[in-house]
Amino acid sequence: MSKSPDLTKVKMTFYPMVGSVEKQFQNLLDTLSWVDENKPTPKQVYEWLRAKYQLSHYFARDIYTVLFISSGLVTVKNEKCCLTTDGKVVLETSSPFMLLEVFEKSFAGVAGFLEILRSKPQINSTELIGAWYDLVKDRFPKMQGWSRKTLNNQSRHRIDWLRTMEFMKIENGLFSLTESGWLFVLEHPPELIAIQKHEIKEQEKLLQEFALDEFKPFETTNKIDSLRKTFARDRAFRAIVTSQYEYYCAVCGIKLPTPRGVYLAEAAHIIPKHSEGSDDPRNGICLCGNCHWAFDEGVITIKPENLTVVTASYLQKTRTDISIQKITKYNGKEIRSVINSNYSPSKIALEWHGEQVFLG
User: What is the rounded distance in angstroms from the CA atom of residue 2 to the CA atom of residue 15?
Assistant: First the structure.
């Protein structure tokens, strides 16, 4: 039996920064800048907040503890405060979008208001809060224990931050997206922001069940009922497929990590999504960016009978080109094996790729 996610780690408390809605973002940036320059102790931070914004000791402490530490903008090392990577990015870019991503990771459901206003452009406060709660309560089950007072306070704080970041506005008692808010949701679906680990794990479990059943090459009965679940499914597919190859490219063998523990490893669909290819892990293979492109464009394929690489014949005419030699040298090479044979690439999928995509 899989272990239930620890939802107590989802941070729910959300405090406003001091100042009016118009000034909160700048005040937050000013505080981040001061912390970055001075590397103060925690006590010095909330003493600075008290003096600069004329706050009570307790409110200054709460802003420091929640808005800077719990959000992940600031951390403490050797009893000195310094900016995290997220904090530095927010400060350097002064980007509302970057701050929204940070807040959504730490404070449940902030971007959910943008989802609501995208489909309901003019809505009053009561309707907005009710629709928002219905939307996000299952994503963050701890929220279901909130009292009415807590719900109203926490939703108001989130709304105020979205207003200070100029994503939403209120006119004549009705909330709507600003022009920049509309541009944002059209370019960056809010459903994609900070999908929680437990949501991805739920999709991983489903995909693992697919791999134990008869392989279905195309999506038919497994359609997903929401955009957010689609994104969670994509991440689950990537997590399963890349980990099965230990983050090595199955063709060229490259494994390139970053200091943050992210790898140059992509989960390529053998039968692509635009052809209704399924998210069964056996319809996936771990590739680097270059090999992924070559595979998708039919420059290379993989023989289903022996899992060896085949390069397109037209490449032989220009084989003196150094760039092309970097691809043709893999012709006949057996791809890397998966950890668990249950996740080996499907012969059905590879046959389809060889017939429908490979350039021959």
Answer: 34
Higher pLDDT, 2 or 227: 227
The two tokens of residue 53 are 């914004």
Q: Token pair of 222, please?
A: 């497994």
For the chain, give the mean pLDDT: 89
Alpha-carbon distance of 217 to 50, in angstroms, equals: 61
pTM for the model stands at 0.69
Tell me: pLDDT of 9 over 60: no
Question: What is the rounded distance in angstroms from the CA atom of residue 346 to the CA atom of residue 337?
Answer: 13
In angstroms, the CA 11 to CA 102 distance is 12
Whose CA is closest to 228, among 114, 144, 325?
114
The owner of tokens 């669909």 is 269
- Which of 244, 345, 238 is CA-nearest to residue 301? 345
Domains of the chain: 9-190 (1.10.10.10), 197-356 (no CATH)
299 with 327: CB under 8 angstroms? yes
Query: What are 153-185's pLDDT values in tens digits?
Result: 999 999 999 999 999 999 999 999 999 999 999
Which element (helix H / strand E) includes 309?
strand 309-311
d(CA 99, CA 165): 9
